[in-house]
Amino acid sequence: MNRPNRQLRRQRGGKSDPVDAEAAARAAASGQATAVPKSGVGPVECIRMLQVARRSATKARTQAANQIHSLVVTAPEQVKHQLKGLTLKATVQVCARWRPGQEQTTVASAKKTLRHLARRYQTLDTEIDELEADIRRLCAQTNPALLAAKGVGPDTAAALLVAAGDNPDRMRSERSFAALCGTSPVQASSGQIVRHRLNQGGNRKANSALWRIATTRMRNDAATQQYVARRQAEGKNRKEILRCLKRHIARETYRLLTNPPPIPNCARLRTRRQEAGITITQAARALGTHPTRISALELGRDHNHQRATRYHDWLRTHAPSPPPI
User: Fold this and answer.
1) What does the longest C-alpha to C-alpha distance in the chain come to?
2) How confident is the model at residue 6 (pLDDT cuts 50, 70, 90)?
3) What 8-state DSSP symbol labels residue 20?
């Protein structure tokens, strides 16, 4: 359903479930309700459910970490001395191995409590890793072109996919998607000053994903840095530049969601490299990147379109036969 008309709702006596139900029925019967709901039967719905589990596990892990920290601060000096100067991960590893026994002392109780919390933290950490791997795999299967875009990782790709749904064609244009993500400009002009402000509506998780993509590109992408410098020379501040960048990224994301382009097939890159007798270090040095990025590209964990294309073209000149693309 479309959002109820607030002006009509105020005229008819405010908000209540019967009033909203009647308004929805009248809008559907008269043809005013033109919104198309998400289908909720495809892989994007699976990503949404996995995100719910991951979000709750992350909150529980943060809570366990905070409790470990507070208990270490208030623990007896004998326990505190063993954990002094350790990082969180090192503290968790030490506490998880403790054997406090059956004594009813403050030291034994503190160690027993910290052991329970540390093992809970480790269990949640493993659960989060498994959920992230599932989300990354589903995103790669659903829309690899989105993951291959600059600054887009599994978390941001999952948020944008969930916002669009399994049927992104339900959005009529990229302007609809921009409004859905809260990146459509809002007029804030006054007198002779013509300006726009950030939109506070829309899907805030998708808006946050677009913000992370924009900030990542501002740090690492040369073209984006040039754009930022040009807009700063025009007198724009950082908030206004971010608003413009998010609107541009929303337009780019809409195209990737509705009409994703083909990306290079990395399944046989490792085989062709090994057949040519080329090491990962040699390939990384030739491409000007780190060997771990080449390994992630070959294993399908990295979906950088530009790096995959460069690697494919480089292997074509060094391998006996080019890998499929």
Assistant:
1) 77
2) low
3) H
Q: How far apart are CA 212 and CA 158, in angstroms?
A: 13
Give me the half-sphere count of Cα atoms (radius 13 Å) on the Cβ side of residue 68.
28
pLDDT of residue 57: 97
Query: How far is residue 215's CA from residue 189's CA, in Å, rounded to a whole number?
Result: 26
Distances (CA, A) of 155 to 54, 158, 206, 279, 316: 11, 5, 10, 31, 33
pTM score above 0.85? no
What is the distance between the alpha carbons of residues 96 and 94, in angstroms, rounded to a whole number?
Answer: 6
Handedness of CA 154, 155, 157, 159 (dihedral sign): positive
- CB hemisphere CA count around 323 (13 angstroms): 25
Tens of pLDDT along 39-76?
A: 878 899 999 999 999 999 999 999 999 999 999 999 99
Q: What is the DSSP letter of 190?
A: B
